[in-house]
Amino acid sequence: MSDNLYILGIESSCDDTSAAVLNGNRILSNIIANQKVHEKFGGVVPELASRAHQQNIIPVVHQALAEAGITKQQLKAISFTRGPGLLGSLLVGISFAKTLSIGLNIPLIEADHLQGHILAHFIQPKEGDIATPKFPFLCLTVSGGHTQIVLVKSYFEMQIIGQTIDDAAGEAFDKAAKIMGLGYPGGPIIDKLAKEGNASAFKFAKPNIQELDFSFSGLKTSFLYFLRDELKKDEAFIENNKADLCASLQHTIVEILLDKLTKAAKETGIKEIAVAGGVSANSGLRNALRERARKYKWNLYIPEFAYTTDNAAMIAISGYYKYLNNDFATQDVTPYARSQF
Length: 341
Known about the structure:
The chain has two domains: 6-129 and 307-324, 2-Layer Sandwich (Nucleotidyltransferase, domain 5); 137-305, Nucleotidyltransferase, domain 5, CATH 3.30.420.40. It is built from ten helices and ten strands. The chain has helices at residues 46-68, 87-104, 113-119, 169-179, 186-194, 217-233, 237-240, 242-268, 283-296, 313-324, and strands at 6-11, 17-23, 26-33, 75-83, 108-112, 137-142, 147-152, 158-163, 272-276, 299-301. A five-stranded mixed beta sheet has the order 3-2-1-4-5, with helices on both faces. The protein has a five-stranded mixed beta sheet with strand order 8-7-6-9-10, sandwiched between helices. Helix 2 (87-104) links the parallel strand 4 and strand 5.
């Protein structure tokens, strides 16, 4: 690592405004401003999200620099999320990054949000070292908007070998939580209640999808119809079985994810296995991954909780490796809504 290679990361793809500073691959700060305004709507409202980013971005960047103990003049480059995400939200981060790069006369580096989640495994703490995946490795990337199995051949070469054909796993959690009246975001609420329930209490259908792809729309529909039928018999069914419903649903989603990941590991012969994305914070998924790792002798890599949700540290580490590769963006770069890798 080059001394004093300070890179600022900016993440604004959805409803979290985040800025981080890395010195090489070592984390110095990672600040995230959450937007509570969306909770009453049961989901992210794009217009409100972009307005909140405009309010948050300058304070968040200022705090990231202050916590890192550096001035903006010491930055060597600015890495920003180009996509995928909400275009209005992305524009705020990109516009800020462009303006700051001109003012400081330092290069811009674009980062893909999903690749950032994967590369978060290579962020090192301020002191000491943590184990990182060895290439090639498989990464199960699971969030509210994406569910993928990615074959990671290098920092820059990644191939999606399986993905959802409809809903993402995180979306299934959120929609099921909404059906049960649990609030938003639903994933963490279901995870908490599932710890008190019986995962074998109820059985839900698993989709029969070919190859390594996923599907969660059928599970969501069967869950909805199951509750509709039970509520006809007992109006208090959800309230009386909340923990068991959450545990059973979570168990089903985790089994769907891990059955495909296990199949991918067998087909490729790869035993370096990682997980990334917001749903990687789910305790049921983490525990099940550890069990599979023991059974199949995988070398398993699970990110710190700080790097599971949307954060700028993962964008900064993407920028670090691109900086070393002299891979810079131009001022005419534009955001994209869907992943391009």
